[in-house]
Amino acid sequence: MKFSGTFKLNDTTTEEVWLALSDPVMIENALPGCQFLVEVEDTDVDFDALREEHGDRDVEPTSDPETIAERAFEQGNHYAGVIGISIGPVNPTFETVVTIEERDQPYMEAGGEGSAGDSSFEMTAWMDLDATDDGVEVDWTAEAEVFGRIAQMGQRVINPAANQVVKRFFSSVQDEIREREIAEGGEVEQAESAESNDDDRGIVDRILGRSEGN
Prior knowledge:
By secondary structure, the chain is an alpha+beta fold. The protein has one domain (about 1-210): START domain (Alpha-D-Glucose-1,6-Bisphosphate, Chain A, domain 4, 2-Layer Sandwich). It is built from eight helices and seven strands; from the N terminus they run βααβααβββββαααα. A hairpin with a 2-residue loop joins strand 5 (about 105-115) and strand 6. The relative contact order is 0.22. It holds the Pfam family COXG.
């Protein structure tokens, strides 16, 4: 199955959107049904242990670039989450592991898999940011193989559910950007002023996904 679309974020810039999407905590808060999203060492995950450790956590998003840099997504790293999704008459909760395959502003690619009882999926997703006159367009594509009970429902049921999740997610991203005053320039001003010395430039480069020599 293939899903794709474009979502428009108004009154913001690619740098601001990329900064927000670099923060796993912001993704956790914006993704519908997400109980937690945390970095793990490999793809063999003990979800019972993760639930015990992170199930009741309440971590606030931040506008501080140094904090985001410390916990930002990194290429090659793995992230585990538990996500509840409504698909037709069922409401599965997927245990999911995602690997960041490529991350270089304004492009990100991730691959992962998830399982929930008698259903599972494998997926690769791409995202690219494009500046417009009054905001940012996020072009996204996902290719997925779905197995089990959910697969039996077919694309006529799965596609609307997937598109609704994406729509709610990017709407929440827009709200997070505004609430954290990223769109007011505070985040960008901090990042720009940080470039006044080499140590702080490293913070900004890590957030933006830049590697040495680029």
